[in-house]
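Fold this: Response regulator transcription factor
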Amino acid sequence: MTGTGHILVVDDDETVRDVVRRYLEAGGFTVELAGNGDEALRRFAGREPDLVVLDVMMPGMSGLEVCRRMRERTAVPVVLLTALGEEEDRIAGLRLGADDYVTKPFSPRELALRVMSVLRRARLPAREPAPDVLTDGGLRLRLSAHQATLDGRPLSLTTREFDLLAFFLAQPGTAFSREELLEKVWGWNFGDQSTVTVHVRRLREKIEDDPAKPTRIATVWGVGYRYDPVRP
């Protein structure tokens, strides 16, 4: 495993910081460390990293608040470290725009692979599929501009939400499993499939008249999800 890039590792546990640093450096990365949220933001402002590994549960400023503040400035990739079973933290982090998460206790090798996977996706050249504009009823996506509107109103979508919605619109009426969506939309060969569930839920909140009774993004029981176009 080899990689390149500058990684900021933020965790209040010195042992965790040291283990992650040694493993990432062995993989070819340069690593900067921070022990709390304030220090992380200072180092972030001094030199923007290529990716941030960020612990959620820290004394003082939480990792979620650090993520929120970073997202106000840039779209730098973020991999969260969360406690096993803390689903709400993972969901909150994804809503803030985090790119992935690893649950503690974790394998340093798995974390390094996640870092490489997220960086690889972030560095892919932007593709402009044809056609550039996808529409369904009042829903309109302009891919090259990364803009989405519903009935003329701008939709605030994260990068992941936009990519998932564009994929659905480009292939209406086809059912995809969560595993297929992880791989086809985001290029993940591994990962927690609940990530897909969270993003589908968020999309429904933004494009469905009644998210509890979705008509566009349908659940296909035993399979996954299917996008049903609005009927005339």
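The two ends are 52 Å apart (CA to CA). The longest strand covers residues 78-83.
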